[in-house]
């Protein structure tokens, strides 16, 4: 809704522009190409005898321009275009968009109804359900997890068997519906530089990487004091907290010494946004089916 100034500014500017076009057309139609037996010209001459003539528009062409002016005026009567005046049809682009979305939802609902009563395992095995889930995933999830679901640093790979919060149907559906907030608190101040180094080496040892035994042993003592509450005594993590398993080779941010040092020193904050208001329950179920089919396809 425009304020009073812009309301009248648009009205005056629009009407003045249309009237100016009409005046220009009817002014130019009076320009004659001939005066008596002489040919009218603009007075421009090139190469001694090349004269620029000044001839009026053909009448049929002029009438086409008149029709466009009539069309513009009729449009402004029926549709909005003059400030806050709605036009006699009351049409708005927002109204049309809402109607088109309602129509699209109604057509899509007919497709989704086939999957409403399907059990999770049936959805995962249904090619059409997985295909629709793949397209929804591409629209809502691919920007973080990648078009193939393999993720990126800070965004989980959905094609392996490493799950921060578990891979049951309910756990995956909850992640999509409500989102997740994973926090790794910074430990740099508590451990100190030497303690961070020792803990990094111990975490490398847990994951099967080559590690200095002495530093790893010292790191285990620090781990047992500060890290065991989340990652567990054996380092296999805790899905209830979203604490990752440190004994495999699946790394959310990376498993190099430099990245591990950064993680332990400064902590991490991960956020999976909730899609409760973005996707209906039917659509979320299809996305969950596609996500679980990605892991199943790997054979893990």
UniProtKB/TrEMBL annotation:
It holds the Pfam family Cytochrome_CBB3. Keywords: Cell inner membrane, Cell membrane, Electron transport, Heme, Hydrogen ion transport, Ion transport, Iron, Membrane, Metal-binding, Oxidoreductase, Repeat, Respiratory chain, Transmembrane, Transmembrane helix, Transport. GO terms for biological process: proton transmembrane transport. Its cofactor is heme c. The chain crosses the membrane at residues 6-25, 60-79. PROSITE patterns: CYTC. InterPro entries: CcoP_N, CcoP_N_sf, Cyt_c-like_dom, Cyt_c-like_dom_sf, Cyt_c_oxidase_cbb3_su3, Cytochrome_c_Oxidase_Subunit. It is found in: Cell inner membrane. Binds 2 heme C groups per subunit. Belongs to the CcoP / FixP family. C-type cytochrome. Part of the cbb3-type cytochrome c oxidase complex. Component of the cbb3-type cytochrome c oxidase. This is Cbb3-type cytochrome c oxidase subunit. It comes from Elongatibacter sediminis.
């Amino acid at each position: 809704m425009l304020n009073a100034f812009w309301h009248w500014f648009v009205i005056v500017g629009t009407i003045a522009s249309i009237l100016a076009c009409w005046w220009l057309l009817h002014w130019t139609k009076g320009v004659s190409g001939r005066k008596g037996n002489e040919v009218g010209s603009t007075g421009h001459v090139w190469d001694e005898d090349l004269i620029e003539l000044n001839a009026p528009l053909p009448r049929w062409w002029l009438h086409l321009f008149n029709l466009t002016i009539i069309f513009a005026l009729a449009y402004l009567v029926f549709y909005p275009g003059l400030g806050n005046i709605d036009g006699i049809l009351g049409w708005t682009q927002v109204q049309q968009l809402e109607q088109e979305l309602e129509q699209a939802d109604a057509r899509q609902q007919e497709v989704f109804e086939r999957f409403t009563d399907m059990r999770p395992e049936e959805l995962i095995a249904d090619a059409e359900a997985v295909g629709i889930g793949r397209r929804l995933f591409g629209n809502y999830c691919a920007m973080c997890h990648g078009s193939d679901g393999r993720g990126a640093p800070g965004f989980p790979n959905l094609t392996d068997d490493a799950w921060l919060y578990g891979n049951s149907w309910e756990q995956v559906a909850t992640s999509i519906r409500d989102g997740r907030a994973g926090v790794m608190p910074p430990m740099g101040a508590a451990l100190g530089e030497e303690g961070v180094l020792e803990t990094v080496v111990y975490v490398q040892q847990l994951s099967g990487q080559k590690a200095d035994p002495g530093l790893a042993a010292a790191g285990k003592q620090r781990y047992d004091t500060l890290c065991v509450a989340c990652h567990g005594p054996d380092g296999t993590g805790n899905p209830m907290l979203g604490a990752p398993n440190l004994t495999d080779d699946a790394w959310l941010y990376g498993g190099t010494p430099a990245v591990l040092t950064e993680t332990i020193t400064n902590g991490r904050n991960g956020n999976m946004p909730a899609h409760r208001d973005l996707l209906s329950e039917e659509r979320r179920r299809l996305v969950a089916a596609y996500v679980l089919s990605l892991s199943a396809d790997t054979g893990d």
